[in-house]
Request: fold
Amino acid sequence: MTASEILYERALKHIPWGTQTNAKRPILEYSGTMPYFIERAKGCRFWDVDGDEYIDYRLSLGPVILGYGYPSVDAAVKGQLEKGVLFSMASPVEIELAEAISRIVPSMEMVRFGKNGVDANASNVRIARAYSGKDKMIRCGYNGYHDWFSTGISGNGVPRILADYVYEVRYGDVEQVESILKSDASNISCILSSPYDFNEDISGDYPRALRKLADEYGVILIFDEVLTGFRLSICGAQEYFGVRPDLSSFAKAVANGFPLSVFGGKRKLMEKLNDFVITATYAGEALSIAAAIATLKVMETEKVHDHIYRMGQRLMDGFTAIAKRVGVEVKIGGFPVASYFLFDYKDSEKNRKLHVELNRELYKERVFVYDRWFMSFSHKEADIDLTLERFERALKKAVKD
Ligand SMILES: Cc1ncc(COP(=O)(O)O)c(C=O)c1O
Reply:
């Protein structure tokens, strides 16, 4: 048994799932190859409890945009630690970060902080309901585990009645959103949607259509930029696609892995917070705020997005050349900062099996990826080239077996 497997057995005795996060649960199909527990990480690499070193393209599910243990971010956190973590009244770093976000993301006229993406989405929806006086919402995709975003599923502890207040729509289906608005706009406070769902359509047509519909029917548009924010561009997908929401939720990449989320948007909506209570003890926790200030500073001064797009493109070009050499039918797409490599045969079961085989071989080659190839500022050309060497070996084995 590996150290990973021994720890997993131990974890399951006291922790349901053996971990805290759904996506970090060990997957049976990958057993014997997937690292279950990670001891430490630096740059674009991590070391698992068995002592193996991996090049990481999962980046803690998105947050680690600069790289693990990025020196200026860690220095800012250590500096803040000397002063304190959490105080009995507000701390000036809250203002510094709020100003930085408003300067960088023009739609964020006013902001507040939370800890997880779900906090930001739940807070924005509350603001939209309070402002509009309407109770229902249209939403799309994964917005977090909160009750409002998990309706219509039985046995998950969410009151069934909440389903009457939530229209869940398919990403990209403009007609579906329009027909709901046509029939029920007078009861709908907001549309909550990610502006990009990490699939094939990178045109931005869907978020632009949502903006148009929201204006036409008088509902508030909330962008869930938890995964796209500070990744697609420094301002997220909204800047990339040129569409401005009324409210936005940011988390993940804002603080390079430190726990922080940000919600906010139009001043007139955010000022509604003076009339009711959204509050959390740890929302002003200063280490994560210091980390976010330092992360944004690096993004603003060091052309981080130029670099991650360039490295991502190098990886995608390499994939294309390798797929041709090996002779496999694939689709390679998405944004270079979070691309995908998928098998593209007519038989979907064959595609799925090959995908699992490829991931197994990649893990054996010590390259860690799941669905999307996230890029960080610490991935340099040599890391990409080494990854491509390993990828070619893995692909050849995956299609041979
Ligand atoms: C688009 C999107 N929204 C919301 C969330 C929830 O964020 P958190 O897990 O930080 O609550 C996620 C998490 O992956 C996400 O990808």
Observations:
- The chain has two domains: 3-68+303-400, 71-301.
- The two ends are 24 Å apart (CA to CA).
- The mean pLDDT is 97.
- Residues 254 and 292 are 6 Å apart (CA to CA).
